[in-house]
Design a protein that fits this description.
The chain is of the alpha+beta class. It is 23% helix and 34% strand.
Length: 289
């Protein structure tokens, strides 16, 4: 009885505490042609490949495009022609992975075991109600990320901050129960084409950076093209017109679909797409008055 009471008390205390999350770490995407992906993520967006992981035959399994010392875009070769979902996972940074793991376990999320990755960091994962893998990572001294600190920060970068990642949501109540009630995210905005047609919900995560997850709501199964747009990342820029100009100078076609515009959230934004159709959005932080 005492053991059960202790467990219940620990769970209650955990439920009232803010998780030790410091912000977005990375998002991962599958690509069909690594060289073409490099032309987009490095060539147009301006991010350097900081390091990669290879198999025994010397083939790249995963490469890391660096946004800043704490944030990356992970790119995985091997996208199958019939594979519609190209985002592999979203990762959040933690300052204390052991504490975080215990807190999520106490909240009933059954997190996977803490593992040491080949990059030298510690990580574990859970899945959200829509099936997206949410990874938690603690950067460790001596890891590839740690050794790359202060390096691979090209002036060609269009943005230096990964602001949010978009995930598909078919059941809003289930998503809120997971992100809001279990992880402690806070809703900051919701909107759509009309009051009767809700499409987006922004959920700010714990941590000082203001990073968030954007729910991309849908009531019918999305097409491949729609998934490429919905499962996206967004990078913050102070001046969208300057960002667009820089992207065009890097090789972005000056087409209407890439032109900056004011979105439903009343912020200036623009969208770009990698060769497989995965969207990278750029957005100003302030709303238009």
């Amino acid at each position: 009885m005492r053991t059960l009471i202790s467990v219940l008390l620990a769970a209650a205390v955990s439920a009232g505490q803010q998780l030790p999350i410091t912000g977005l770490a990375h998002a991962g995407f599958l690509v069909s042609d690594l060289d073409k992906a490099r032309q987009f993520y490095s060539g147009i967006l301006g991010y350097e490949e900081a390091f990669d992981l290879k198999n025994e035959q010397g083939q790249v399994l995963l490469t890391y495009f660096k946004i800043n010392d704490d944030q990356f875009i992970e790119v995985f070769p091997g996208l199958a022609p019939n594979q519609d979902v190209r985002m592999t996972h979203v990762a959040l940074r933690t300052s204390d992975i052991e504490k975080l793991h215990k807190m999520l376990d106490a909240r009933g999320l059954a997190p996977g075991k803490i593992s040491a990755g080949r990059d030298g960091n510690l990580n574990f994962s859970v899945k959200d109600p829509g099936g997206m893998r949410l990874e938690f990572v603690e950067y460790r001294p001596g890891s590839l990320h740690w050794k790359a600190r202060g390096k691979f920060l090209s002036s060609r970068r269009i943005s230096g901050h990964l602001q949010h990642a978009g995930v598909t949501v078919a059941n809003l109540d289930a998503a809120l129960a997971f992100y809001r009630d279990k992880l402690g995210f806070q809703e900051t905005w919701r909107g759509g084409p009309s009051d009767q047609d809700l499409r987006y919900v922004n959920m700010r995560m714990p941590g000082p950076g203001g990073d968030y997850i954007e729910f991309m709501l849908h009531s019918t199964p999305p097409t491949r093209s729609q998934l490429g747009s919905m499962l996206h990342i967004c990078l913050e820029v102070p001046d969208i017109q300057a960002a667009y100009k820089k992207a065009v100078e890097h090789g972005l076609p000056p087409e209407d679909r890439f032109q900056p515009r004011v979105g439903l959230s009343k912020r200036w934004l623009m969208s770009t797409f990698d060769p497989d159709g995965s969207r990278t959005e750029f957005m100003e932080p302030k709303r238009v008055e």
